[in-house]
Amino acid sequence: MIDFEKFKSNLNDLVIECESNTEGSARNEAQTRFDIIDRVLFDCLDWSKEEAKVERSVEGKYTDYELGRKRIAVVEAKREGLSFNIPSGTITNNKMKLSTLFALEKSNIKEAVLQAKNYCSERGIQYGIVTNGHQYICFLASRTDGVPIKEGSAVVFTSLKDILENFELAWESMSKYGLANSTTNQLFKKNNISLPKKLSSKLLEYPKFRYKNNLQSDLALLSELFIQDVANEADIQERFYKECYCESGALSKYSLISKNILKARYSNLFPNEEESPTLQAVKDKKKFNITSTDISSALSKRPIILMGDVGVGKSSFIKNLIINDSEDIFNNSLYVYIDLGVGGILANNIESFVVNEIKEQFTEKGLDIEEFNFLKGVYASELSKFSKGRWGFLIESNPNGYQTKIAELLDEKVNDLHNHLKRSIEYYTKSNQKQVVIFIDNADQRSYEDQQSAFLASQELAISWKVIVFVSVRPNTFYESKTSGALSAYHTKVFTISPPKIEEMLDKRLRFAIDLAKGSDIPLEKFKNVHVNAENIEYMIQAILMSLDFNEDIYSFLINITGGNVRSVLEFITKFIGNGNVDADKIIRIMKEQDRYYIPIHEFTKAALLGDFSHYDPKSSIAMNVFDISYPDKNEYFLSLIALSYLNFQESPKDKDDFMDSQVLFDELQSLGYNSEQIESSITKMVNKKIIDTSERITFKESSNKLTSSPNLLRISSVGAYHFLKWVGDFTYLDAMLFDTPILDASVHQELLSNLDGIDIKTRYSRAVIFRDYLLQCWRDMDIKPIYFDFSQLVDENSNSFEKVSSFINSNYNDH
Fold first, then answer.
1. CA-CA distance, 719 to 557, in Å (whole number)?
2. Which residues contact 143 (CB under 8 A, 6 or more apart)?
3. What is the number of H-type helices and E-type strands within the chain?
């Protein structure tokens, strides 16, 4: 909570001190800043000295103060004796027009305000404050609403006493809290941002769903079964993992980001100042690099954590370990696999679900924990004590009565399932010399509260039940739980799981799917009495395999646009096969006639951009529109691209794992004239679209915390690299994004509207050329361009897609 009265009291003390000081007029600028302005800013308006920069130079120009970690305001300080002569009657409720201030010829205000305004414009800082220590003029210095600076208003305080008497207004217009929360916009009457409506708003139906025909619907269903769901089919699971499992952590040659980033996938999860667990990568599919020391640790009250991003193959790793493991350490074990995702989706109480699952799986594996002889072994000590107790006399006088009492005793024990399972496991491990291993998987698919319950359950199993417990978690889940939740109480060793080499995984999975489609070699039990015509799905998968072998650019597309995520790649291929935007009829027909068909990469790109819709929809597409803007500022078209390029620039300041301090990125973007709100909006969108990775491994939508500030560390992802290296000048990408990008030039906007509903290739090509040329002109008009990014060069490098479309049009439309 902000101690508002404390800051006001500090100002009152300063006012009293200044009124009693008769030598104040002798202070020069430096002394004025030290004696008065510092105290106003830091003691009365809650600015932090750690987040303030003084005498900051850009191209030889020095600002007196730049306030805020993200540089919200510039303060231009003048000496105390330089009075701002403001005629009485020109101020109403501490507000006046900047044009009025500028017109005061005898005032020193105009020069100071313009100086602060220029500093703000050059450095992407929104607010300017001009002061001589006693008088303060606050104004919106960097505008994105089309209003000239001089036509705006300023908040003016004629003395420190004036600030004290109007402290609430001063707080809103000059304090850290007031400026950071943009309440100042209201004080300065910043106009509502007026962006032209996107072209998509002119479409009759947007977003329009592309309904599948019967063939596409059948392909969609079969592709889900043969490619995605097959891993969960019990009757072929063992063969599936033997033939399809791939080694974790192998690096792909197609990734557009450095191998250093891929190797350091889970680096910087914990800040340097925090004590962090030991991270050890799982690398070999045949030899899980867990030692007897790790097992001893597990048996001494510590679950073993398997950490991996969404879709990297945590579940596959666990199931392969269970099915194909041949190591001595697991040879003599009884496994229990608990799926809190699909399997436990209806369970309200995680602890109860886990306990019931253990019992059911014990039964399935032939361990009946309610069998009488087993119960006698588990409770041998209790039965011995019982025979010597008050009912012991019944052994000879009433054997049947005694057995009834024994049954009641055992029934009481069994009904306490939690403790009965614990005792049963202890007896089983001792009598059979076997270890019980429990895997708790997919906890991270549940709510945060359920995840905490799962972690607490895993700790109890490890602590009290003396079983080996593995828990799979996502990095962000682990981070939150370790720092503030259920995993915070002890140190732990964490095994990290990285995705396998995608090209190897995809080849194995698609070939396995073809064998399934043929039906003769790997029959599925569920189809035993059902006729399924899988010939078409076989042709589609064959065409995809041929295309991958023929054009490696498709591998590059798949691996980078999904971030090397196994689940995402498989989901994309599955959806592609049954996608309404893919001409499956043509592919299958040519495959039947010619026994080969190479699907062009733009077909994959179109499916990624549009999904199941006829036009790009930012809410459903896996792609981000990097040209979208939040202000009527043409320079903003390139903000996200510049940010990505700077993150990817070899000479930009990054740590050993290629992470950049977010403040460094903010400073760089502000130096190009972008304000903090534009930058914040861009980074938020890029993080949510997985264009850039955060050290905390969160997106703002998924985090349990609200967005209050940018993450500490940022790093480009392969998804981001593909966007700005491959998609920026691509015909298919620009053709999709033009519908989602506000066009600030009225004539260009009108030109694009002329045939907006046309879907033939000639019309689409013409629109995309107009959009591309418009962006190129906006780029040429930019005053400040970074040395590490050239939009026109990227367009040239990816111009072959436009050339191919132009060539196709010339070849097929010559007579029209």
1. 9
2. 149, 152, 190
3. 38, 16
Q: Strand pairing partners for 335?
A: 437
**For residue 556, which of 604, 622, 610 has the smallest C-alpha distance?**
604
> Which residue bears the tokens 């990816």?
798
What's at 728, amino acid-wise? V
Query: Which option is the CATH number for 4-187: 3.40.605.10, 3.90.1570.30, 3.30.70.600, 1.10.10.10?
Result: 3.90.1570.30
- As a dihedral over the C-alpha atoms of residue 552, residue 220, residue 228, residue 352, rounded to 10 degrees, the angle is 150
Q: Supply the DSSP symbol for 324.
A: H
How would you classify residue 46: left for phi > 0, otherwise alpha for psi between -120 and 50, otherwise beta?
A: left
Q: To 10 degrees, what angle do helices 566-577 and 214-223 make?
A: 160
Closest alpha carbon to 429 in 358, 533, 333: 333
Amino acid at 525: E
What percentage of the chain carries pLDDT values higher than 70? 86
* Sheet arrangement for strand 692-694: 660-661, 713-716, 692-694
Q: What is the pLDDT of residues 427-445, one digit of tens each?
A: 998 888 888 889 999 887 7
In angstroms, the first-to-last Cα distance of the chain is 72
Cβ(336)–Cβ(361) under 8 Å? yes
| Residue pair 252/502 in contact by the 8 Å Cβ criterion | yes
The full DSSP string for 485-550 is: STTTTS--EEEE---B-HHHHHHHHHHHHHHHHH-SSS--GGGTTS----HHHHHHHHHHHHHHHH
C-alpha dist (Å) from residue 284 to 23, 281, 296, 492, 645: 77, 9, 22, 21, 35
Q: Name the one residue in this structure whose structure tokens are 């250093």.
A: 260
Residue that has been written with the tokens 């997985």 in this structure: 690
pLDDT > 50? residue 705: no
Tokens of residue 580, six digits: 């309404």
Single-letter residue type at 221: L
Q: Which amino acid is at 372?
A: F
Rounded distance between C-alpha atoms, residue 410 and residue 416, angstroms: 10
- Would you tell me how many other CB atoms lie within 10 Å of the CB of residue 703? 17
Judge contact between 776 and 782, C-beta under 8 A. no
Structure tokens at 172: 């809103």
Nearest to 272 by CA among 692, 712, 662, 710: 712
Q: Are 62 and 55 in contact (CB under 8 A)?
A: yes
- Ranges of each domain in the chain: 4-187, 214-229+528-610, 368-433, 634-806
Confidence tier at 738 by pLDDT (50, 70, 90): very high
How far is 622 from 303, CA to CA, in rounded Å? 35
pLDDT tens figures, 198-211: 999 998 888 888 88
* Bridge partners of residue 334, in order along the sequence: 436
Query: With helix as H, strand as E and coil as C, how does 238-257 read?
Result: HHHHHHHCCCECCCCCCCCC
